[in-house]
Amino acid sequence: MTDKPPEDPSGGAGKDDDGSTTEPAKEPATTALDEPEWRTTPFDTPSPSSPSLPAVPRELAPQPDEPEWRSTPFDVATPSSPAIPVLPQDAIDPAPAIEPATEPDEAALAVAPIDTVTDAVAETATPTEAAPVEAAASETAASEATPFVEDAPVEDAPVEAAPIEAAAFETAPLVEPEPLPGLASESIAVQASASVAPEPPIPPPMTRTPMPPAPVIAMIGVKSIAIVMAVVGAAALAIRSGTVSIAHFGELTIASAFATGLFAAASTAILLRSRAKSRAALIVKRPRLVVDLPAAHPGVHELPPIIQRVLVASVFACLGLATFTSDATARIASVPDDLTRPSRAAYCLDDEPKPEHEASDPVAPPPPPVDQAGCALVKRAYQLGYAKTLGSCAPSPAVAAAKPKDETKPEEEACDRRELDEPFLHYTWRRVVETAQGASPIDAAQNRADDISTRIGYLEDLLADVKHSITGTPHASHHIFVSLPDPHPKSSLSEFTGEEPCTALFEDLPLWPVWSADAPKGAIVEHVLGQLLFATRFGSPASCSDYTLHWDAPADACARIAKDARGFLEEHDALEPMRAVLDRRRRQAALHTLMLELEHKSTLPEPPPASHVASVGCFSVGSASSSSGSTIDIDGETLLLRAATTPATTSLDVYTDLARMLAGATTTVRPATSEPLLDDAEFPLASLEPYLAIDPFTIRTALGAAELVEVYPFDRHLHAFVEGFRRVYFAQRGRL
Amino acid sequence: MKRIAILVCVVTVAHAAPSRDARIAHLAAALAQLRTAPVALDREIYEAVRTRCKPPPNTAPSVACMIGVAREICGKRGCSAAADVIVTNQHAEHDLLDDVTRMRLVRTGSDYHGAVIAELREKFAPLAAELALAKQDTSLAATIDRVCRERDQIARRCQPGAAACMATIAYQRCAAGLVWFVSTKKEESR
Fold it and tell me: How far is A673 from chain B (nearest CA, A)?
């Protein structure tokens, strides 16, 4: 290991690789950047200028056609080194010279310790004579390795790699080339040229001395690592998913296996097109990644190419096995047939035979067993244990009635599409003739002109309807004026955050909250209104966006509306939405008429009456329950105006009075009970059972105490009340 | 005339509902009394009600008669709270089990009442699950009282025919069912 630059011991003269003699260089030879060290360092050639240059042994002279590994006598040392003994000629065993140095020789490895040889060379060889190649190679290796190993000093890499390089060095036996013809004349030519040239310093005689090779760090290419990892991952996934299992292989069809093999082979061929080594590798001894290595770096080890192909093919085979199942392969194979199959939309095809389970009429579910008349006593006796069997009174399944033939089913229409065996030109001609038959261009144009003329007459309605749709005019507008403060007073923050949508407000209303004495009555009214109109637990609700609650309204709101409807409604921002709804209704009615004039089937139903889509109501709190009704006129439309007053003593009052204001008189049928009410402190649970039949809306005194309200079975009674109310109310209301 | 009689009766007894603490104490007493031989007491009350109250076909016996029978049975044993739960469950049987189910039980088993108890237990199982998931109060009785009191306040939507869903249930039936469910085991009720 040295930091000094190597010097050319031969003075620059030598031979090229092709064996020709070259002139001695004036300056010491330098190593080309892109050329391997062993090619630019002609330490193995004698200086032609030396008059006493001994004849190069034929065994050591490079030959023109000699492979590089043979023409690189790493094992030749300069004889000028005093510490290195010159090996006698007969000590060289020519036998192993034939074998290349790539095969490791365990015997050679065992001859001498690696460190001994390396140290001996380092101690005995002068930097200028013995170790130019080593030094240059060491620098090259260091310059290649250090930029990517940040925390490693420059000297570290060769030191760590020393055992490996020494081993590699020892695996290369001493090479003695075979005698080659023409060497004598070559030597003569060298001597002749030496006699002309000025005498350079006499190079020391070359001796056979083991020379350490360039330090090479053992690395594993990322390609091999990636392949192994992919194999391991694919195998794990395949085994875990059951793709690689006997059952899966048993279900594999020939087509599926072929597709899998084809996929694996093609993918492998595409992926492994190059046998080049990886340009990035992982250092073995110190697991670090080195990137941007030169191509074919000698230290990078890769799996043999055939092993790589096998492994990559196995990865893709696993993917193929998971992908190309029998069904998938059959579908892929059927793609060409599907593409070329005639479409039912373009051709007249025979009806496809229905599957067997669809060919017959759908099987009706078995009817419930029919209780036979007069068997109640027998059943009761059986139930009480007095009879062992029900006998003829056992429930017998009802016989399903035969389904009558559906005579309303239309006859099959004649197909006028293209026949399978019909030429295209014939089909085209037939379509032209059918189109032209019975059609008069003049009549068609006249009809078209009439249609356009009629539509132009309704142009304003058409445009207004489009405008209503775009601007989102409400589908209905019902305004309820309540003489109570808003239970949700608007805060200044709501100017920025917006108001809570009504759908969220009425989404989860409790069934029957227990209101305290100081509970705001507006909250009770709002809750009851939500239960009556918007709660989904009682069936289809109304749309809360169609309703506007005007809190803090005057107690005589309806009287003032009856006197001056436009003024009062405009004052409370209720007139504009009501007018918009009425206008939208008028436009829809006009378009409905247009469709009738055009003799087209109307796509719009006839709009509901104006009183169904807009209304006004007033709800106030007073001393007693009362209600009244009248009409108002807005833009020529007659609308309902209803008012109700409630004492709001209990929720029951609010329910009944609010229902009366919205729907008028409501009638609900309440089931009567013959169960007497009990007051048994020992059996409080059983004493509540009769309340299941006591309707609090009918018998209001049933809700006497707050304790009873907590446990009263309101659900079935409230269901009956609200459902009865909605039946009446929704018949009076609608939306566009 | 009947309505007037009911109205008079309602006016006289409506304000006599138990308070919350009284309800919880009653449920706690029922839980304690049902720890020992609940099924035997249930069978005893059932047999007595069947023979003495004799309701019309397909109707439940009157509550007053059932309470009277139960009071006689528990007069000396001090099991009135447990008997209240049992009477409530037996009275709710006709509402909780439809005719088809009851006829199936008649047809398929020799012990009709045992089959009814098992079927009711299946009905109460979703309630028990709600009880287990509910926030626990100071005692099991208090939790049962709160769960059953607040249960119907929330709207529940059940698919038609969904066996594991009970949309609504009255307080007394919910409480009696839960007390019975947590006091008995499945094997005992069969």
Answer: 8
